[in-house]
Amino acid sequence: MEHDARGTSLTRRAVLGLMAAAAAGGGGRAGAAAPILERAIPSSGEKVPTVGLGTWRTFDVGTAAADRAPLADVLRRFVELGGRVIDSSPMYGTAETVVGDLAPQVCVADRLFLATKVWTSGREAGVAQMEQSLRRLRARRLDLMQIHNLLDWRIHLRTLREWKAAGRIRYLGVTHYTSSAYDELERVLRAEPVDFVQVNYSLGERDAEQRILPLAHDRGVAVLVNRPFSEGGLFQRVRGRALPAEARPLGCQSWAQVFLRWILGHPAVTCVIPATSRVEHLVDNMQAGVGEPVDAAARDRLAALVSGA
């Protein structure tokens, strides 16, 4: 969950222009980019790309063609660049419906890894909401259903296990977007076998690395990362500052890639899900997943670049 709130400085546009020019100079079509690094879901071994797509705010639009056309372009480019994981929620307004309507225009439905959430109280209400998500996303089954913000998690977890056994979902998980809930989240991860946990984690919000990420790694739980830009706060921190030359040998051509590659350098992280409604930002974000992840020493250097901004 991350609203795309980065700036549009001349430096950033220039960087993206150079990236596009380099791709064109390689003689391939726009979609023929280097492959995105994949990581395995511990509970199954299935691999997914390390950079996905969030839909909070950005996909909450109406039916007007002018509103939806840019999002169709984002989805199309996302798939061209090797993206699969799309994360949504009933609490994101029309986002599920927009994804469900647009996805068939850009790819075969089975190409995507669709993740959404249940966010209500009570078994019957939870079942009704999940059925609604299936309809909105136009899916016969969902790849991942998560209990949003741990709301009524004991009740919903029983339902999710039933749905998984019946083949209606492939994976189940729990989520939260604030570190104030980490005590309860840790208790759930220790007590219950789940496939995924989704948490906020960034250079602006590092609490997850103290307990949640090591625990997920030890328990064999895949990690989705939301709020990778700290709700735009990281872009505010570096606004007007050119990307230091030291970032380029670490595989970063923009500040967004600094933020994302730092996250992906953590071995517990499976996939990061920045949201955007702009193709140029999507391309930039996806590039962060190209090449081998940075090691611990390089992560420290990237963090120092941001702290010095």
Task: Explain how this protein is built.
The chain is an alpha/beta fold. It has a single domain, classed as TIM Barrel. It is built from eleven helices and ten strands. The protein has helices at 10-25, 65-80, 95-106, 123-137, 153-165, 182-191, 212-219, 233-238, 255-264, 279-287, 296-307, and strands at 38-40, 47-49, 53-54, 85-87, 113-118, 142-147, 169-175, 196-200, 222-226, 271-272. The strands form two sheets. An eight-stranded parallel β-sheet has the order 3-4-5-6-7-8-9-10. Strands 1-2 form a two-stranded antiparallel sheet. Helix 5 links the parallel strand 6 and strand 7. The protein is globular and about 55 Å long.
What is the helical fraction, as a range of percent? 40-55%
Runs in which pLDDT lies below 50 for 5 or more consecutive residues are 8-32
- Through-space gap between termini: 25 Å
- Kindly report the average pLDDT value: 91
Instruction: Based on the coordinates given, report the CATH architecture.
Output: Alpha-Beta Barrel
Topology of helices and strands:
Layout: H1 10-25, E1 38-40, E2 47-49, E3 53-54, H2 65-80, E4 85-87, H3 95-106, E5 113-118, H4 123-137, E6 142-147, H5 153-165, E7 169-175, H6 182-191, E8 196-200, H7 212-219, E9 222-226, H8 233-238, H9 255-264, E10 271-272, H10 279-287, H11 296-307
Parallel strand pairs: 3-4, 4-5, 5-6, 6-7, 7-8, 8-9, 9-10
Antiparallel strand pairs: 1-2
How would you describe this structure in keywords?
two-stranded antiparallel ribbon, 10 strands, 309 residues, globular, TIM Barrel, alpha/beta, eight-stranded parallel sheet, 41% helix
